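stuck on this one:
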Amino acid sequence: MKKGSALIFVILIFSILLTLSVGLLQFSVASYKQSNNFVSKNENFYNADSAIDLALFILDAFSEKAREKAYVYCFKDGNVNTESPEVKIIYDQYMAQINDNNPNNDDAAYNAYKENLSKIYIKNIKNI
């Protein structure tokens, strides 16, 4: 073996090892970035999900108050609230049809009464 051939052999081995280590380092950095992006994506998803849940909770709280007020407008002590003018008109129309002594009209009268009362209830919820 000639002098200096060992030096070339060592340089060749070091260059192969350096190339392999740079490749592994790039692979490690890419894997780290991918993991970091995955964690960030999941964190953002759960933050958005909790914000939506909070917004829905607040809307539901306001809606519950509106439902209660609309219910009180339409009903009092479990009965129809005839003190409310709109409700009284619908109730009186229903009672007139029921007292008509025509049993064939009872179902249609009840369905119309229920639908009209529902419209008033929904209108009050929207107004509130």
Notes: Strands lie at 75-76, 79-80.
